[in-house]
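Example 3.2
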Amino acid sequence: MKIAFVHQDHCLYGASRSLLAMIEYLVGRGHSCMVLLPRTGPLVAELEAHGIRYAITPWRGWMSPEGFSRPRRLASAAKGLLLNLIYVQRAAKLCRSFAPDIVHTNSSRTAFGSMLASRLGAQHTWHFREFLGGKYTVGGEFSLGRAMSMAWVRSCSSAVVLVSEALKTELAKSLSGKQSYVVHNGVMPLQRMLQVASPVPDSKPFTLALVGRFDRWKQPMVALEAVKLLRDEGKNVRLLMAGTGLKEDTLEVRNYIATHGLSDRVEMLGFVKDMAALYGRSHALLMCSRGDAFGRVIAEAMAHGRPVIGADAGATPELVQDGVNGVLYRSGDTRDLAEKICRLMAQPNLLREMGQNAARIAQQRFSNEKYGEAMERIFLDVLNNRKSRCLFPNRRT
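Structure, written as tokens:
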């Protein structure tokens, strides 16, 4: 089986790491994989290190920022479609010798993969990894509007993969009649999980890890405000902030820390490569995001044996079982978050039990092997059934 992956991210964030895990499993099973990227970046070095074939070729997405007027969104969609009709010819030539059986679009942010699959006469599958529009939007929406875009998805794919039940529920009406699968991301090999899982430390102060970008959807300010509340109440709490963000978002975080005298309570670590060391210093993970469709850092923290204090939004309640492997707080409610942190601080035995549960659940649900096996089965089902339809005529280059 030959699979070409259209991947929108040239960096090494969650979607890219999930892609690498998927390809590693598939290659190990004897399948051939190729990755198409719109630009070069850190992901290229990883692909080269793993001996994975790739090509750099431009394409346009079909998303617009929130706040764009409808005429502006439609104009953007029309321009993107016209450019993609040109770009797809170049991409098809790059794929000619590879001759994929399936083109897998690894994001809902572009329809380019469906056009490429049609051009190559290959089957097409689509991977939805984010909320776009609606209650849990992360700042973008379909330029064509949801109704027209999802009609395109139904017409141009043999199967749609969704990273959580929460995302499937959000898109249930839009995907009615289309074969869809929920597949949680894998975060590391099972053997690695068994190696990195460790007991929650008995040390003080009580230390929390916040991992991810600094932006308004991840809500890092909620975490900082909770730490301030606890500091003001005399609680010995520390926060490790691992991640980066746009200049203005990072500046907002730094200014809040300086203004409220939290420099002795908060460490800004920047990009962290050694996550095992980070979790080794931490008692629990904070997940303040208002709308993650999966929450990869939750699964990673669980694999390291750390309970999660998460906002009851998006797919977080799907991963965090309240009272079992963590606790949930009302999304955006700083006071409720502070109270939940206090609850765990006061019950070290419960905290350790939650950490053990977290590691066990991660090993059962989020291993690379489980993820890769599920994706392989979907691809094979697609090839066996070959029921895709497309808005564009199939043609081999």
